């Protein structure tokens, strides 16, 4: 069966520091991968998605970037964090064919001080 | 046109009652409608999903009703339990139309509290 892993679960970072969040999927190949941000009590905002290695599409211009160095690995990065980057970051995957559901990881709670 | 409007924002139901959450959409290209359940500190988990070729789908105490002509769909939770207390999101995605398609458009969520 397929599983998705995100780490770390929580992270506290100072303003201006770099960021690297990692997401990996097991049990499938060539998945579509997604990064979302969820503000407290709010809905899900799609940040980036990828349909293949090295391919990244950005939905919202901002201080963040994403990379997909391997088929089942998706990384969210920032060179300099802002206070507004605080939030709950979720990675998701879906099968790379057909209109299939997305499956989410358990997220990273990021607090910027 | 890409929006999915979800209501109510919050809902309080007595144990054993019926919880009803509604969603409406405009984009007629949407053809897949999942519902997600999210507990605090966790990622959303797929609860149940429907495609427009059926008007209703039931899984245990959870039922999706779909009205294609009205472009509305709803989640009914029968015999609601305190363990159902969570945030529920409806979503929709369109027919494939090129690379990067199948993007899910989410409603803003409904916080359900089931009180004993």
Task: Give your account of this protein's structure.
The complex is a heterodimer of chains A (113) and B (116). Helix content of chain A is 0%, strand content 57%. Chain A is built from no helices and 11 strands. Chain A starts with a strand and ends with a strand. The model of chain A has no long low-confidence stretch (mean pLDDT 92). Chain B has strands at residues 4-7, 10-14, 19-25, 30-38, 45-50, 56-59, 62-67, 72-77, 86-94, 105-106, 110-115. Chain B is an all-beta fold and 116 residues long.
Keywords for this structure?
A: 113 residues, 7-stranded mixed β-sheet, 4-stranded antiparallel β-sheet, B: mainly beta, 6-stranded mixed β-sheet, 5-stranded antiparallel β-sheet, 0% helix, 55% strand
Question: Percent helix among the residues of chain A?
Answer: under 10%
Q: Poorly predicted ranges of chain A (pLDDT <50, ≥5 residues)?
A: none
Number of helices of chain B: 0
Based on CA atoms alone, the radius of gyration of chain A comes out at: 13 Å
Please state the overall shape of chain B, judged from the principal axes of the Cα atoms.
globular
Radius of gyration of chain B, CA atoms, in whole angstroms: 14 Å
Question: What composes the largest sheet of chain B?
Answer: 6 strands, mixed
Mean pLDDT level of chain B: 92
Largest interface: pair, residues per side: A-B, 23 and 25 residues
**Beta-strand percent range of chain B:** over 45%
Measured by DSSP, the beta-strand proportion of chain A falls in over 45%
Spans where pLDDT lies below 50 across 5 or more residues of chain B: none
Straight-line distance between termini of chain A: 38 Å
- Can you count the helices of chain A? 0
Structural class of chain B: mainly beta
Structural shape of chain A? globular
Helix content of chain B: under 10%
Number of strands of chain A: 11
Output mean pLDDT of chain A: 92
- DSSP strand tally of chain B: 11
How far apart lie the N and C ends of chain B?
40 Å
């Amino acid at each position: 069966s397929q599983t998705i892993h995100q780490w770390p679960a929580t992270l506290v970072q100072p303003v201006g520091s770099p960021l690297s969040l990692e997401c990996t999927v097991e049990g499938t190949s060539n998945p579509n991968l997604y990064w979302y941000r969820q503000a407290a009590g709010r809905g899900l905002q799609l940040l980036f998605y990828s349909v293949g290695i090295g391919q990244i599409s950005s939905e919202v211009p901002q201080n963040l970037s994403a990379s997909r160095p391997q088929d089942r690995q998706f990384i969210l990065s920032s060179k300099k964090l802002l206070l507004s980057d605080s939030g709950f970051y979720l990675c998701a995957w879906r099968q790379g064919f057909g209109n299939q559901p997305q499956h989410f990881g358990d997220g990273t709670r990021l607090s910027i001080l | 046109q890409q929006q999915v409007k979800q209501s109510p924002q919050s809902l309080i139901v007595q144990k054993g009652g019926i919880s009803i959450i509604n969603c409406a959409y405009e984009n007629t290209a949407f053809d897949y409608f999942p519902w997600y359940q999210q507990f605090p500190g966790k990622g959303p988990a797929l609860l149940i999903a429907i495609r427009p070729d059926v008007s209703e789908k039931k899984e245990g105490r959870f039922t999706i009703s779909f009205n294609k002509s009205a472009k509305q769909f709803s989640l009914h939770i029968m015999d609601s339990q305190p363990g159902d207390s969570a945030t529920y999101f409806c979503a929709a995605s369109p027919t494939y139309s090129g690379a990067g398609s199948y993007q899910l458009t989410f409603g803003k969520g409904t916080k359900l509290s089931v009180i004993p």
